[in-house]
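We close this part of the discussion by returning to an individual protein. Part of our work consisted of pairing the sequence of a single chain with a tokenised description of its backbone. No coordinates are needed to read the tokens, only the vocabulary itself. The amino acid sequence and the backbone structure tokens for this protein are reproduced below:
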Amino acid sequence: METQFEHGEQTEPVRILLADNCPLIRRSLREIVGEIDGWVICGEAETAQEAANAAVSLRPDLTLMDHAFADSAGVQAIAQVRAAHTTGRILVLSASQESSQAELALRAGADGYISKNKPAQEIMNAVHQVLAGEIYMDSHMAAMVLLHVLKARATSLDEALRELTHREMEVFELIGQGVGTREIGRRLGLNVKTVACHKHRIKKKLALRDAGDLYRQAILWHEHHLSELTSHAKTGPS
């Protein structure tokens, strides 16, 4: 996605709205933004409602905001600003290091999430990336969010796998280990057509679209449970 901010093409100042209930944080952000040529603070807000109102009236290119306000629960403030100005970009600066908060912020409409404790240069890099139309999270936070998503998928898959018969589960486990159809048949004493029938029933029970989906889900499940076994082995008695 290209924007007017890429390749030095902007002809007008980048207008930034600051939304944070702490005056000291807003002052620090003013100082950081003030060092960049072509960036201007178009407004400030210290409540979620003020932020939403400012987003409507000022139409900022970017809103730098916290996700926690006294007049807004959770990430509701982000959703309010997003609804008020659907085309503006939003970068959340938060005191929270929880990956779950980052995921909720992105779901609510944020385009990026970064800790307030990061160095000024890293915050500016995040701003540049978000203005360029990209999504920003630092590598550690992104890895944690991805891990959370994968665990959630694996848990959901575990529930669906209860519908499989013992034989279908054996086939599914071998698929997850990367074993091909003929080898599955050899190991389980089944012919190729029977293995194919089991695969078809597994796809139907798990609501999977095709063989590619089946392989991906089986491998995901296998890797998740393998990592769990490894973790238990490391933390168990010696």
About this structure: The chain has two domains: 6-137, 144-235. The longest strand covers residues 39-45. Residues 92 and 105 are 8 Å apart (CA to CA).
